[in-house]
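Appendix B, record 7
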Amino acid sequence: MLGLFLPAGVLTAAGLIELSSISLHFFWLQLIWLFLGIGLVVFFIFVDWRFILNYRWIIGGLYILAVLLLIFVYLKGPVIRNIRSWITLGPFNFQPVELAKIALILLFANYFSRRHLSIARWKIIFTSFFLFIIPAVLAVIEPDLGAALILFGIWFGFLLLSGLPPRRVLAALAVFIIVGIFAWSYVLKDYHRERIVGFFYPESGSLGINYSAAQSKIAIGSAGFWGKGYGQGSQTQLGFLTEPSSDFILAAFIEEWGLAGGLVIIAFFLMLIYQILKIGASAEKNFERFICLGAAVVFGLQFILNSGSEVGLLPVVGLTFPFLSYGGSSLLASAFLLSIVNAIRREQI
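Structure tokens (predicted):
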């Protein structure tokens, strides 16, 4: 158990330390979400997860619930930071797209584990695309481009590792590109297009669309090997670094704890991914292997897109760093996935 929860615990503890430096308000809210996440872990230790998830109607119900909540949020949700993406419950905000990620992983794990021998059939490919595209489009129109990319990663990752022939992979990718061109013209907001264009021209817009990325690189570049010390990060503490508690928490952490601290964070995150893949490789059933695959894809993609945007290698798409960033619904969803993976590991003992 320590092999799986140790890296997640270190990342969460590091995030809480940095949040206490940035905002005590976010620190206490994250602590509450953490206790809820621990409750999920304990629940799946004492409850047979197979009894719950082996019923297809439960998995389908989670998917339908996620889609309905995404529709509700788009129609009635509050606008926060120009995005209609949350359901507000008192002082807490919950993102239904996090439930959509879990639902899609469980749905695809069940779907592909039963059909992996006939994965090359167009019917299976397009059915899986249809299941992915509904929550993805709802995420894009919120607009939450980062979440849509994660949902795409889940779908495409399942296709790749289900043994899909290369020609079918290229065809599936072509369908997505066509949909992407349509989304660029008719769905994406102006600031989404500006971020993508700004990625290819990083020298422009340092006071505009590339401001956050520029400040993040300054925070990281000025940290040195050991950092400036707890609460001493100038870019973070003086407000130059935008969203230091969520989208740019790695930059904030490195500014105060240096390159050494950043390397520790990356090392423990890679340890977490390794443990998930190891458990998946040892699983006896395809359903369990696919769940581990989905968890690794979600965590890995969020890490790549978040850290890549913080160092200026990728556009800023507004994604959290798993377990490190502030974000209650993200932490709860991550704890849920980790709980299921741990339940799979316990069956192997």
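Remarks on this record: The CA atoms of residues 75 and 84 lie 9 Å apart. The chain has two domains: 1-47+211-349, 58-188.
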